[in-house]
């Protein structure tokens, strides 16, 4: 229930952010008395010097002026265009076709690991286990590179654009600031969600203790009597050892054995406490997965809007790059959805559909608003959302994916050297490929 409640709150937060994005794009339109959009251009009357004075350097040669003044309006061009492409040059069929291309590619990326994981039982060390492990660590590298190579640099570039207000240029670290704020807020949200889960687990434990005799749990492990706290620690350590690299790799095995205490050494009397504790730990893992999807979904909407508004000259290159981008991100998210250990297909399918629909929805929004969009406001909104998304993904990458799954995972630390090397190579490969894609998208 707590995980579903958190997912609902996350969806509402995403909806509010989308509403804010669209509202800000329309609200920040600044129009002159003559009806032209204000893009911080310079009027003819605002220049007291002549064109000859401004175009010559001290030594008499023509100065290379960064702002490339035009005869009327003197609009600036600094890599990011402040003007939209004319309607007659906008290739609408190509944009509509891109929606279906990205839809199919994203679906293949995210559902391939989900289907491979759930289609039939498999053993640890099998080819499928190695393939899923590769996808999982490959996805970790993809997520890290997405934040560092794709989101944060783009946010910094947009904050430095001459198209937005001069007030945003008074401080040159807005990209890092919003990224840091997102990470801090995410830590608070996750702590609040975990505290809520702790309270629920404590209430369940109190109810179970009230019905148990003398508050102790008899175990079948070496004939010892283990109190509740020690039994929980023992069960948790055994789960970490069983999980090895992929904590969820044994789901088929667990589902075929309805009593998990057979794997932890706790007998029927202790089943209530150990199972409740393991369920609590799994709920905490689920929160991290939901937060990860929130960050990826926000980013997917942003790149969809960008694709819908981009010029035709760079559209094909950007589309090809985004096809690979969404495919790799789909693999990353799909392998993490497997960690939810759902007994049915419902939740994985819903989370997969949420991911594959976001970029096409973003493209649709970009197509719909490009005729009435205010480019400076759109650039500012994209800069802020890119920074926030980078903070979300960086927090997840280092806290949930690398720290918990590698450094603090007993199973990973006890695995063979060859398996460790394989996992790290997969992670570095994912980061490298996404870094290469950064040259185009």
UniProtKB/TrEMBL annotation:
Membrane topology: Multi-pass membrane protein
Major subcellular location class: membrane
Region of interest called Disordered, as start-end residue ranges on this chain: 36-79
Comp. bias regions, Basic and acidic residues: 36-46, 62-74
Residues that span the membrane, as ranges: 96-117, 129-151, 171-194, 287-308, 314-337, 349-373, 379-401, 421-440
Pfam families noted in UniProt: Zip
UniProt subcellular location: Membrane
GO MF term set: zinc ion transmembrane transporter activity
Polar residues: bias regions: 47-58
Signal sequence extent: 1-27
Keyword annotations of the record: Membrane, Signal, Transmembrane, Transmembrane helix
InterPro entries found in the cross-reference section: ZIP
Gene Ontology CC terms, in alphabetical order: plasma membrane
Name of this chain's protein: Uncharacterized protein
Organism: Mucor plumbeus
């Amino acid at each position: 229930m707590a995980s579903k409640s958190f997912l609902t709150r996350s969806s509402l937060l995403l909806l509010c952010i989308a509403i804010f994005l669209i509202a800000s794009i329309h609200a920040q339109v600044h129009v002159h008395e003559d009806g032209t959009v204000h893009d911080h251009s310079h009027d003819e009357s605002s220049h007291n010097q002549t064109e000859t004075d401004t175009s010559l350097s001290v030594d008499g040669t023509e100065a290379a002026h960064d702002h490339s003044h035009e005869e009327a309006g003197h609009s600036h061009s600094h890599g990011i265009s402040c003007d939209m492409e004319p309607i007659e040059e906008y290739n609408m069929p190509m944009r509509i076709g891109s929606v279906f291309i990205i839809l199919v590619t994203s679906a293949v990326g995210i559902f391939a690991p989900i289907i491979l994981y759930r289609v039939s039982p498999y053993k640890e060390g099998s080819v499928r286990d190695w393939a899923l492990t590769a996808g999982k660590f490959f996805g970790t590298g993809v997520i890290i590179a997405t934040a560092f190579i794709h989101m944060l640099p783009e946010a910094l570039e947009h904050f430095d654009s001459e198209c937005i207000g001069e007030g945003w240029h008074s401080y040159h670290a807005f990209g890092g600031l919003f990224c840091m704020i997102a990470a801090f807020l995410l830590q608070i949200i996750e702590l609040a969600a975990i505290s809520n889960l702790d309270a629920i687990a404590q209430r369940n434990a109190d109810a179970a203790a009230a019905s148990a005799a003398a508050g102790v749990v008899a175990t079948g492990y070496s004939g010892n009597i283990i109190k509740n706290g020690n039994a929980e620690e023992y069960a948790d350590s055994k789960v970490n050892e069983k999980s090895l690299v992929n904590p969820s790799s044994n789901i088929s095995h667990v589902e075929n054995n309805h009593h998990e205490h057979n794997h932890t050494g706790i007998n029927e009397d202790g089943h209530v406490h150990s199972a409740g504790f393991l369920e609590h730990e799994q709920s905490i893992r689920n929160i991290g997965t939901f937060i990860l999807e929130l960050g990826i979904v926000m980013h997917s909407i942003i790149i969809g809007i960008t694709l819908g508004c981009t010029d035709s000259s760079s559209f094909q290159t950007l589309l090809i790059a985004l096809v690979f981008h969404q495919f790799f991100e789909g693999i990353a998210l799909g392998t993490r959805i497997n960690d939810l250990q759902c007994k049915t297909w419902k939740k994985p399918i819903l989370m997969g559909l949420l991911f594959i629909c976001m970029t096409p929805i973003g493209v649709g929004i970009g197509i719909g608003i490009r005729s009435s969009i205010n480019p400076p406001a759109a650039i500012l909104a994209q800069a802020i959302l890119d920074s926030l998304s980078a903070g979300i993904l960086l927090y997840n990458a280092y806290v949930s994916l690398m720290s918990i799954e590698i450094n603090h995972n007993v199973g990973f630390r006890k695995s063979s050297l060859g398996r460790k090397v394989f996992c790290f190579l997969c992670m570095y490969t994912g980061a490298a490929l996404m870094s290469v894609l950064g040259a185009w998208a």
